[in-house]
Every structure is written in C-alpha cells, then in structure tokens.
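WARN  no MSA supplied for this record, continuing single-sequence
INFO  ligand: 1,3-dihydroxyacetonephosphate
INFO  echoing inputs
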Amino acid sequence: MALVTSTEMFKKAYDGGYAIGAFNVNNMEIVQGITEAAAELRSPIILQASAGARKYANSIYLTKLVEAAVELHPEVPMVLHLDHGADFETCKSCIDGGFTSVMIDYSGHSFEENIAESRKVAEYAHERGVVVEAELGTLAGIEDAVSVDADKAMFTNPDEVEEFVKRTGVDSLAIAIGTSHGAYKFKPGTDPKLRLDILEEVARRLPGFPIVLHGSSSVPQEYVKIINGHGGALKDAIGIPEEQLRLAAKGAVCKINIDSDLRLGMTAGIREHMQAHPDHFDPRQYLTDGRKYVKDIVAHKIVEVLGSDGKI
Ligand code: G3H
Ligand code: 13P
Ligand code: ZN
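INFO  complex generated
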C-alpha cells in the first residue's frame, strides 16, 4: 500500500470509537520504532513532521524514511502529515513534496485570517488529493516552533466551529481543551483535567466531523524516573492522564498527537545504555535501546489509549 490520506482512517475511527496516533518523526530510529509497533499491533498510523523536524533532518530524508517504512510494512495504512504548518507556502511545499496530509496552524491569527489561510490551503490541497487539518483556539506550550504563554492559551469556542469548518472546507479540526505541548503541562499539585464538556459541545455542532488533540503526551513517570536515575534532571514533568485521552478517543477525537513521550523514551533508552556501558561509543548500540523504548511507548498508546490495535 502507498501512503494514504486520513479520510478513510478517520471515518472508521469515528464510527468505531477509537483514535489514530499521530507520532512525530525526526530520524530513522523513531520512524522504525513507531512503524514496527503499528505493524505488530495491526494499527493504522500517522507519521508527522514539524518545521523543526524538517529543518533538522531535511524534508526529503523524512519523506524517504517514511516511504521505506511503507515498503517494509505494506499492510499498514500510513499517512505522512505536516505538523503545525505555519503558512500556505510551507503547506504547499509539503503537498508538492509527497505529504498526504497537512496542518495549517493559523490559530494565533484572527478568526478571519485563520479562515482565509486555511481555506487557501484546503483549496490547493484538495485539488491534489491531500487532506487538511486546521486549528481553532490556542494551546499553551514550550516547544521550539510552537510557543504560547500559558495565560494566553484559549479554549476553543464551540460557537465558532461550524462557521469555521463550513467556510474553510478543511477535513479535520484541532481544538484546545486543556492539552498543551511539551513535558510540563500542569503545575505540581494542580488537577490535570481536560475540558471534555467543550469537546462534547463541539461534537454536537459538527456531527461526524474528525476532531484532533495536540499536546497529548502523558509523560509516563517510569521513563522520567529512568532519565532522572541515569544523570537526567527533569523536574515536575507532568502530562495528560491517559484515561482522559481514552474518553476523548471514544468520542469525536480521531487523531491524538504525541511527540514528547517519544522523546522521553528515546532519552531514557540512551541514558540507561550509556550509564550501563560507559565504554560504548557505537551509536548503533545506544540507539537500539532508545528505539526499543519508542516502540514500547507507541505499542502502549495503541492498545491502552487509542484503541487502534487490530483495526487494519
Ligand atoms: O507540536 C510540537 C511538536 O512536539 C513538534 O515539536 O517543533 O520541537 O519539532 P518541534
Ligand atoms: P506533546 O508535546 O504533548 O507530545 O504534543 C505533540 C504535538 O501536539 C505535536 O503536534
Ligand atoms: Zn501540536
């Protein structure tokens, strides 16, 4: 099977009460860890590349790595998606470069500007068989290219979603209900709760329409402990409780974005390896352990959070 769009995937996920994992890819070992887990568990998958990933690895390398995964696992439906496309030009370059899905993230602009840019991307993409995700509302976050102060984070206003989707023609919508980017999502002692009431209201206004959650890493504490027990210093790293994501996946949420948890897995594997084998200097040795934890984490998400196992 060649790369696919998410259209069919989302329809089945919506009707089946599960979600598709959208995992960020930055290098070969991450692509391998994700796709090996998906193949073993017979789960469809979305591989997504951010601006930072494209700058780090070069978009052509990432595209070819994903194409290699498609060739090795032809039974697995895979989408290659642009994560947080900043503008029309970025989206266009990915559409022209073989991506099957793009996100236009104009959520930091005015409602009207967001509509105009998202619509422009949707028109260009649809003429070429590519699907489009847009965003309404703003997430808090501390990632490189995605930086929003916590106090500026705005929940999605359900009153706006119907008009937005109708006027843009986009295929899926990312909403802000309390998730955020990075490994420090909540202050210690606070109640990590999503606004599932907003999600329900959005779903009521857009029946059958696929909703996307960004910033959905759960920051598994066993990996934080491995990192901190082997020379790391991650203080008060807190993520989204898995049971809340599971509830969202059973409802209208069809795509759940996870990056930070994979970073934790890769770092935990490498740190553990380095401390156990201070004499090793072959990257294949420590990257094997990093890749193993990435695969374990993706497998756990597929079965325990997304519910997408056995859906091929
Ligand atoms: O949404 C943000 C993703 O985690 C990508 O992060 O821009 O550091 O690649 P990045
Ligand atoms: P996390 O930082 O929670 O993994 O979110 C990733 C994301 O939203 C990518 O778009
Ligand atoms: Zn995101």
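The CA atoms of residues 23 and 258 lie 5 Å apart.
INFO  checksum written, moving to next record
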